[in-house]
From TrEMBL:
One of its GO terms (cellular component) is cytoplasm. Signal peptide: none annotated. GO terms for biological process: mRNA export from nucleus. Pfam families: MCM3AP_GANP. Residues 1-458 form the Germinal-centre associated nuclear protein MCM3AP domain. This is GANP protein. Coiled coil: none annotated. Residues 279-308 are annotated as: Disordered.
Length: 462
């Protein structure tokens, strides 16, 4: 009998203790105490098991191994302006996590424990002690099947040039496989329909109806958001497999607990397709950053309008200066959906501002020309007592200015005239030429005025 227990590995070691017929004496008590102490020293450590309900086990596993990777990749692609990750890659990562969790919950190493003691267990188990069927092969097979039932079907990415309506029909067919019954199917379909409607409105506002396509392209469909809705619905609308479960495994509140090794949850390895997808995301993000660095900031600036910057001189002239203002880039319009929706209104308002500034420019130009064409009312003539040397000065046929013009002002006036010639339309070019002639006459009048004053000073000295 003893050898049979040793051969079956039910006993690892033993010792024989002779006990007296009565334990009332001190010697018998000491022998029993020593035997119990030896048993305690040979007792194996309690298994380091974790206990969770089936729903908690699946949700915590998905959150730790799938959601963390999925949302990190989604955020990186969104910040880099990249389209959604391929749906097949996301689904393979999610299903791989569930496959890993099912292996942990049904590990063969759990069958090696002959624990707990029957007298200490109860139906359904608890966090400290499991039920008697917790590591039986039939129950572990049921747990594996239950965890795998959370998986979702595979979805292929449609061709890039696929029409909008057939793609939407394919998506709704896929979504119908997620719901567990016809009662919950309208809920998930309405959520997916809302996502597709937002994508369509965003595409329509961006194209302003000038596209030959009937809707957004395959790259513009939010596959990650659609699959996120499907996974969330699957976790909420789950039904256990139809395989029979041991009655001892169900607790009083209807929960089924999963007992597993904590260290086993640290051994998950993402599938190769996900690793490749992560490398593509990093490469596309790096290329996008390099392209943004190559483009100079000035390449995003275009002349907006010509602004009037009048500088009044003593001669009554004004000068124009062209100003530049940067136009917002396309990336700034696509940051949010609201900016895209208001893009047509923004362009119309910008066009109106350009028209107003152009009209203001023309009015100012006409005003400047009108002021310079009007002759002064009280021009000063030459006195009769000028010396003979001044009489031979070439006559000036234009009116004299009331105040002299400095050389700096004359240079500014010439620059203003050149700018006017470049900016004005051909209908005003003749008037500009006449304006230049008047300016030349003004210069000659200044020379005559200086000679006149010099002659008066000489006569006073005499």
């Amino acid at each position: 009998m003893l050898q049979d227990l040793i051969s079956a590995q039910l006993i690892s070691d033993y010792t024989i203790v002779e006990l007296p017929g009565s334990i009332n004496d001190l010697g018998g008590t000491r022998r029993i105490s020593a035997a119990v102490g030896w048993l305690v020293s040979q007792c194996p450590d309690s298994p380091e098991l974790c206990s969770q309900t089936l729903q908690e086990f699946v949700e915590n596993g998905i959150d730790g191994e799938f959601a963390r990777r999925f949302y990190h990749d989604k955020k990186e692609r969104h910040l880099a302006g990249l389209p959604s990750q391929e749906p097949g890659v996301i689904i393979e990562l999610y299903n791989s996590v569930l496959q890993f969790l099912s292996d942990v919950a049904s590990s063969e190493q759990l069958c090696d424990f002959s624990w707990p003691i029957t007298e200490f267990s109860k139906p359904g188990g608890n966090k400290l002690l499991p039920h008697l069927q917790w590591n039986m092969p039939d129950h572990l097979a049921w747990l594996k099947k239950a965890v795998l039932s959370f998986q979702i079907p595979y979805l292929d990415l449609p061709p890039l040039g696929a029409p909008w309506h057939p793609v939407c029909h394919m998506i709704f067919q896929y979504v119908s496989q997620i719901a567990s019954s016809s009662l919950t199917q309208p809920l998930i379909q309405s959520q997916v329909e809302n996502l597709l409607r937002k994508s369509y409105l965003k595409w329509k506002n961006r194209t302003c109806g000038n596209s030959d396509d009937d809707g957004p392209s395959v790259d513009e469909i939010p596959w990650d958001d659609i699959l996120s809705v499907c996974i969330d619905h699957k976790l909420r609308d789950w039904k256990p497999p139809k395989l029979p479960v041991a009655p001892e495994a169900v607790s009083e509140d209807g929960e089924i607990r999963v007992y597993h090794f904590k260290e086993h949850l640290k051994n998950f390895t993402p599938p190769f397709s996900w690793e490749q997808a992560r490398l593509r995301t990093q490469e596309e993000t790096r290329q996008g950053h390099e392209r943004s660095r190559v483009k100079s900031p000035s390449s995003f600036k275009k002349p907006r309008s010509i602004s009037m910057m009048p500088h009044q001189y003593d001669s009554g002239m004004s000068m124009l200066s062209g100003g530049e203002k940067s136009i917002p880039s396309a990336d700034e319009f696509t940051d949010t959906a609201s900016a895209q929706e208001h893009l047509p209104e923004h362009l119309l308002a910008q066009l109106q501002l350009d028209k107003i500034e152009s009209r203001r420019f023309e009015e100012r130009l006409h005003q400047c020309l009108a002021e310079d064409l009007d002759p002064p009312g009280d021009s000063v003539g030459l006195p009769l007592y000028l010396p003979q040397s001044l009489v031979s000065t070439p006559p000036v046929t234009c009116p004299l200015m009331k105040s002299p013009v400095s050389p700096a002002q004359e240079a500014g006036s010439e620059e203003g005239c050149e700018l006017l010639v470049k900016e004005l339309s051909p209908t005003l070019s003749d008037r500009v030429k006449h304006f230049e002639q008047l300016l030349q006459a003004t210069k000659e009048g200044d020379v005559v005025s200086e000679l006149h004053l010099s002659a008066l000073v000489d006569m006073v000295d005499i």
